């Protein structure tokens, strides 16, 4: 049986894909790019994916596109991104501008939010909550980027992967934001971004509730999660 990995933008997917690539063919794992939705995965095939807090995902997504994906990649800005980054150089500046009393500045901010890749995406670009529930028997793991290391261990055991399969320690291959990029948000910026992503925040809360419903509440180490996944 094939197992599909859906790559939700800025939710740890680069690190996961890098770790799985050497054993993907031998273990029937299909590593998808950003364009593949849950609806594209054949019924009955196994599937897993990771999500991330929407506000954190915004910050990571802004900085990733601001640096054009470097140093892991070098992806040219779109015309919309060029316009956006000409106005806003940090995620905080853009987020604060969303609430500006200056109509022109606020409109430029809304334009940027709609035109910066990663920032413009929503969880429903990949699946709906109803689709997740409909795949109960074939979903291997509802992963969380905030628990990437421990969830990956569960995933590795569930897929029967060798101990040599590990997440990359190198920050480049993990596609982590380099330390020189500003990741801070003011209270006003956080409130503005939370309002912008209100639907994704509600989605993420329900996603975590489904995860707990299926696999039990969070506990340090989650030693019982592998057994629960096997018996699901």
Short description:
The chain is α/β, with parallel strands linked by helices. It is about 45% helix and about 10% strand.
Could you characterize what this model shows?
- The chain has 232 residues and is an alpha/beta fold.
- It contains ten helices and four strands, in the order βαββαααααβαααα.
- It has helices at residues 13-20, 54-66, 79-87, 91-97, 103-115, 129-134, 148-158, 187-196, 198-215, 225-231, and strands at 3-5, 29-31, 46-51, 139-144.
- β1 (3-5), α1 and β2 (29-31) form a beta-alpha-beta unit.
- α3 (79-87) packs across α5, α4 (91-97) crosses α8 and α7 crosses α10.
- The longest helix has 18 residues, at 198-215.
- It is globular.
- 33% of the residues are buried.
Topology overview:
Blueprint: E1 3-5, H1 13-20, E2 29-31, E3 46-51, H2 54-66, H3 79-87, H4 91-97, H5 103-115, H6 129-134, E4 139-144, H7 148-158, H8 187-196, H9 198-215, H10 225-231
Parallel strand pairs: 1-2, 1-3, 3-4
Observed structural traits:
4-stranded parallel β-sheet; 4 strands; 232 residues; alpha/beta; 10 helices; globular; 44% helix
């Amino acid at each position: 049986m094939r197992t599909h990995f859906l790559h939700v933008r800025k939710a740890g997917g680069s690190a996961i894909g890098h770790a799985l690539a050497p054993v993907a063919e031998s273990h029937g794992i299909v590593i998808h790019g950003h364009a593949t939705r849950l609806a594209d995965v054949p019924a009955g095939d196994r599937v897993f994916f990771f999500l991330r807090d929407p506000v954190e995902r915004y910050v990571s997504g802004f900085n990733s596109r601001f640096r054009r994906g470097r140093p892991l990649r070098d992806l040219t800005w779109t015309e919309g991104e060029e316009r956006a980054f000409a106005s806003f150089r940090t995620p905080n500046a853009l987020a604060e501008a969303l609430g500006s009393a200056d109509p022109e500045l606020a409109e430029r901010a809304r334009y940027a939010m709609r035109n910066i890749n990663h920032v413009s995406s929503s969880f429903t670009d990949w699946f709906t909550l109803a689709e997740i529930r409909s795949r109960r028997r074939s979903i291997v793991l509802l992963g969380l980027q905030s628990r990437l290391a421990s969830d990956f261990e569960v995933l590795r055991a569930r897929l029967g992967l060798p101990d040599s399969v590990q997440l990359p320690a190198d920050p480049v291959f993990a596609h982590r934001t380099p330390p020189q990029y500003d990741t801070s948000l003011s209270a006003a910026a956080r409130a503005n971004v939370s309002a912008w992503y209100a639907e994704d925040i509600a989605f993420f809360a329900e996603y975590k509730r489904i995860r707990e419903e299926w696999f039990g509440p969070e506990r340090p180490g989650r030693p019982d999660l592998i057994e629960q996944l096997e018996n699901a």
